Amino acid sequence: MAGLPHPRGHSLRPGSSKEDMVRRYVEDRLLLISRRHVKKFGNPSPGDEVTGFKSFGEVAKELDGLVNILWKSGTPCLQVPFLLKLASDFTQYVRSFPPSPRATFELLRKLDHCFASLLRGQDMDTNETLPGFENGLRSGMTTTDMVRCRSLVEQTRVLIVDVLSSGEEEEEEEEEEDDDESATEGDAPWDIDEERLHMDAARIYENTIVQLGERLGDPLGNDNKIDSSVVCSTND
């Protein structure tokens, strides 16, 4: 997966044809992804052009494309609800396939960057003010959004440990990427070696956790800390 694209200079105007076009496109793609997930569990019908996913890597590729589009839109009223929806759908899809560590961690790293940046109103890496946040954080997450995000973070961190420990991993294609694409500047790429998988799980949504703690006033770090002595015991 390539890195996140640079967002457009200004948010799309509310109610504009461009905003509506992006909204409809993302809605249609999320629906198609859901249909392909359902098709995974049944036999294809003759003439049906919708085929089921064969691996989580395929799912992650589709979700990754939508994350990129939403981030590039620079429009919080699209980014917040759709990224929360996408992160929720992720928790349903990832448990339906054999573990796919590379695809899983790379997608979660992107979502972490998006959520943490939206909570700050600034890009986590560059500290640039995000489009739509020129007048403060009012355009970002509401308290309800933040509570929902916190619930997703907690659920995902526990879920991924279970998924990674559930069985044989699916084969994943090796990708040749520049350092700038595979990891954000100053941040080490996800280490997917077998002995480090569970340690990487402890880093899931780490930036989002910090920002949620600052915004909601109740740090999540202690409640979400994964006991590495228990997690790593699976490798003994």
UniProtKB/TrEMBL annotation:
PANTHER family named in the record: ADR380WP, TFIIH COMPLEX SUBUNIT
Domain of life: Eukaryota
A GO CC term assigned to this protein in UniProt: transcription factor TFIIH holo complex
Signal sequence interval, chain numbering: none
Organism: Metarhizium album (strain ARSEF 1941)
Protein name: Meiotic recombination protein DMC1
Region described as Disordered: 1-20, 163-194, 215-236
InterPro entries assigned: Tfb6
Compositionally biased residues, Acidic residues: 167-194
